[in-house]
Structures are given as structure tokens and as C-alpha cells.
Input
Amino acid sequence: MSMTAAIQDDLFTDDVIANPYAYYGRLREDDPVHWNEAYALWVITRYDDVVWLTRHHELFSSAVFLNDRRPAYPPIDESDLGLYEYVKNYQGNQFIQHDRPEHLEMRRVMHGYFTPKSMEAWRPFVKAAVKELLDAAEAKGSMDVMRDLATPLPVLVIAQMMGVPAEDRPYVRQLAEKLLYIGRGEYDRMRPLSEGMRGMIEYVSPLVDKRIVDPGDDFISVLARGEKQGIFTRHQVLVNTSLLLLAGHETTINLLCNGTLSFMRNRGQWDLLQQDPAGRAKLATEECLRFDAPVISIQRIASQDVELRDKVLRKGDRLRWFISSANRDPEAFENPTSFDITRHPNPHVAFGSGTHHCLGATLARVEGQEVFKALAERFPDMRLETEDLEYQPSITFRSLKSLPITLH
Amino acid sequence: MARKLRVWVDQHACVGNAMCEAIAPAVFRLNDNRQSEVVDPAADSEEKILEAAENCPVSAIYVEDAETGERLFP
Output
């Protein structure tokens, strides 16, 4: 505890953004249930605490926007308070921002679409899309993994699932980039954020209208069915269509980029993958998810007073649990700072745990496996063009700005 | 008469998503670790049990014919 006085609480400094593992790793050692004074927020960093709290959904509410009357953190421009109310209402209608019993009812509308078996059926489509993107990159001899592979692949896949026309994909990604301001700290972030939200609602409205009348086998039709069953309001169908369009690709982008970077910085593991790309891709993808997870942290609100280690979280307190530090907890993983693609078992929490465990986990896995396998098969000599890499200033997403690679 | 099933949950894989419990609550129940356990494989229909297994997001549920050992899921 003597160390805690020295902990600085700004989670958006260049150091913390560049290397969250050092900062949250130190918290995990010194003060695993840390009260962040600057944002009035509990910061939870140990693996077993993260697993425990995600599995006790009755103690920690996921309705972090609708039930929270306190101001935004970090603070926002006062003239944007109206926009903040709009953002809260939009976020609050997402199914992931509900607790049981509503959450279960909403998730069941969608859950069957994302089973491991039905996602496996998408593998040939994913494989073909990866091939097409890598063919284009090969012709050029280099690529920005972010721009040329990690972004177009998951956007294409989720757009296909949702029946979004091919020509609209760049526009959808443009809106998605505005929605990513949710995890950032800028004073004026409510402006791009609310713009992205309004844009999404406007964009998906006619797609939803059409499927209410004439449902097909795409995923928007699944959500539209939820309205007919009385589980979703129309506004909730629109918000959740937007959510799936975003969540269906953003996190996978980070898996593909961060995973590729891990391989490039751990050449021995890259060589190991090449010995048997098809055989090793599965465990390798799990290790990419653990080692440099796409999502850094997620918020909850205490539903009642809860004791955690030597602290008491009061009813209504905000808390964030950190995937980035839990996945490197030495109590849970041997040699946690080593990138080891043979690691097994690998009970990482990149997808969370419990009732809110990521709906799209299997899809992300399929996309990761196919990309790492194809890269290893086709470009054994690929290398980083620069070590000078930057991350988006977010406490939610671990997102590179770009990842330039030489292929041969 | 319905055939007897052997049903179990891989505790290394289970993430406590609890969809199995929602689908077949008489068969699956969350334990103190909030992981799923089989309490009674005969308490619901084969169809419901297979539905629960298929809906497990991490494929942690295994189903066999108890007499022949035939694997029914995955």
C-alpha cells in the first residue's frame, strides 16, 4: 500500500497508451483493486478478480449508461451535455448494456446465429476473402496491415452477414471510426461520437424497414424478428444493428493487427507457426488474444456494496476490469510476458467471461486463424517496416494507427 | 422410450455463459465457480440437451449415448 501514493491516475498519458501492460501490471502488483481518484473509478487488474466479477453479473451491472447520473469521465465540454444525453440513450439501448432478465431475452434473439457450428460455416468465405486481400498485397510487395487486411476483412465479413451492400462498406467504416470515440478522453469527443451514432441510425433505418416487411436469412432480419417477438423496440433494433456492425469488426481488426505485430516481434514464434500453419493457427490465435488483447478494459457499476480484497465497492460505484492486465497475471499464466503460441490451456479473458462473454468470439477466432495461417504460408519473410508504431488514445480498444509491413 | 445420455461439461473450457442453463435448466446448473455442471442428464429431452450443447459459445458440452458410447455432440 505504501506504493499507491505514487500511482498517477491519468489513463490517457502517452506512456499508458503506448504500453498499458507496464502501468496496469504495476497496479496488479501494488493495488489490484485501485481507486482511481481522477475519474472516481475502481480499476480491477487481477485475473481471478476479473473472472469472479464477470461471473457475478448480479453484483456488477452492465447497464453503465442508463443508470448512471454522474458526469462523463474524463470530463467533457459543458456545452456538449445535451450530446452526452443522446450518447447515453444510444449506448443504453444496446443489448450488452442490459442485465438479466432483459439481457438474456435479448441475447437469445441473436445467440443462435453465432454458435460455433454456424460460424464455422463462414470459414470458406473468410478464407476466400483473405486470399483476395493478400493477392492484392502481394502484387504491391508491402502492405499496411491495418488498412489493407485487418480493416477490410472483418468489415467485409460482418457486412456480408448483415446484408449490407458492398458499396456501402467504406461509409460504414467511416461511421464506425466516429463510434470509437467512446473509449477516448478528448474534451470534445461527444461530437464525433454522437455524429457517428446518428449516422448509423440513419444508415441502418431503411435496411431494417425492409427486413421487417420482407425478412431474409441475414443478421438484420434476426434482429427484426426480435421486434416482432416484442423483445426489441424499433429503436433497439436500430441501435443493436449498429452495435453489431461496429463490434463485428472493430475488435477483430485489433486482433489481426496486434497478433501480426506479436509475431513480427517474436521471430522464433513466427518460425514455429510456419512449421505447421494449419496445425498451429488455433492455439496461436488464442495466444494473440491473450498477449495483446483487442479490448483493454470494460466498465461495470456495482449493484450493491461488494467487498473485494481489502476494499469495499459501494453500490453505484463505477469500476473497470482490465483484460490487458488479467491476461498477463503471473498467478494465472506461466511466463505471462512471453508470447508462446503453443500455450495450452490458455484461459485468457480477451472475450470476457460469464453471461456477457463475447457473442462474436467464434467469428473472431475463425478470422484470426485464417489470417495468421495464410500470412505464415505465403509471406515467411515478412517484416516490420518500422518500430515506430502508435496507438489510438483509448482505454477501451488496443488499436494501432497503422502497421506497415514488407512482404518479401 | 428415450435413450440414456451421458452429458458432461469441460471445466477447462466453460466460461459460465449460462446459455445451457437457460435452455435446459433441469439438466445444467452453475456451480459455486459459476461454471456449468450436469445435475441430471435425464431431466430434459435429447433435443433440448443437444440444443444447449450447440449453443455453448465455447463448445464445452459433450453428449454421448450412454449405452453405445456414440458421440452425439460435438
Remarks:
- The helical segments of chain B are 19-23, 46-54.
- Chain B is about 20% helix and 25% strand.
- Chain B touches chain A at residues 12, 15-19, 22, 33-34, 54-59, 74 (CB under 8 Å).
